[in-house]
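Exam prep: given the inputs below (a chain plus S-adenosyl-L-homocysteine), describe the expected output before reading on.
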Amino acid sequence: MSTVVKLKIRSDYIKLYQNKAPLITKESVTNPHELKKEGSIVHLVDTRGAFLAKGYYGNQNKGIGWVLSYNENEKIDFLFFKNRILNAINKRKSFYEDKETTAFRIFNGEGDGIGGLTIDYFDGYYSINWYSEGIYTFKDSVIRVLDEMGEYKAIYEKKRFDTKGQYVEADDFVKGERGEFPIIVKENGMNYAVYLNDGAMVGIFLDQRNVRKAIRDKYAKGKHVLNTFSYTGAFSVAAALGGALKTTSVDLAKRSKSKTIEQFSVNGIDFEQQDIIVMDVFDYFKYANRKNLKFDMVILDPPSFARSKKHTFSTAKDYPGLIKDTISITEKDGIIVASTNNASFGMKKFKGFIEKGFKEMNTSYKIMEEFSLPADFQTNKHFQQGNYLKVLIIKKTS
Ligand code: SAH
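Solution:
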């Protein structure tokens, strides 16, 4: 058992923790230098030394640890992890019962009471993300909970923290019987190929499940669809299954082509009828403009930051420009699916970017639908940054 470090909270931050903010930030603590070993249990105390909360020390880009409990008597032991994880699983009953969906998140960090830890379920496999060395020190407890829950195929893990040159298991395998990848998971009846042994990006982003369903069920039929920043083409697959006339997927990463071919193929779609282009999206916009190409639907899902040879893109700065480029290649009455996972701004500001882009293009629009994180990505109402996903389905009306 590690020793407890008392972290003295600055007076102007005390309210924050009393109001159940889960993230422990460096600037809120007067004595961060007393933190030595990641994974140590910390007690947050006010200026007079009275207990506020307890948590663990773990360095993440977001902070220096997470609150685990506001109850002084609650022990942080195996039972603590067991209760939190079982509680989370109880909330996902409908996902377990849904035969058409076999991939979903069963534990979502601070949304389920333990920041820095997420667990995804992929058809009998678990994939754990550890976001700091601190949370990784609780690995044995977390694995034991999964063991006690019943049979599974295997556990994989992603250490999403700097391992300082230490040996990192080449294929992320923890225990069980190694999978043969790709495994094919189902999502609302669609198939997706998933690799749990190949780094943090496994082939599909589960948080876009509802958007893929909407594209398939309501927007794709008879459309020419452009999917930008397409990665493995998950949105293109949804569009094709929804009856799109043709999809065009554009991503700059070379691996995206074979991965997209694979996603089409596992769904019985002839990839040769689709366009899969390895190119910088910004070059593609120029190309499309030159050729006067127009699409009925354009999907925009850029990373928060991206650097290619020619461009540095930051959603917070460049989204209006991206929308403008998109407007010029979208048909009248066409649909733009605008998405961002940037946690540094909320929906209101995102809508402002859309407004700015359309205004500067002198074009009118109508927001048809809005999406945020799906139910399995539980969020913590005291931590808005955790509610990062924003998706708008927009109709270009002039
Ligand atoms: N929309 C995808 C996920 C996108 S992940 C999905 O739903 O699965 C972000 C992708 O953007 C990565 O695959 C990355 O290779 C790609 N990317 C980043 N910068 C790019 C650029 N300038 N042009 C094209 N693709 C880019």
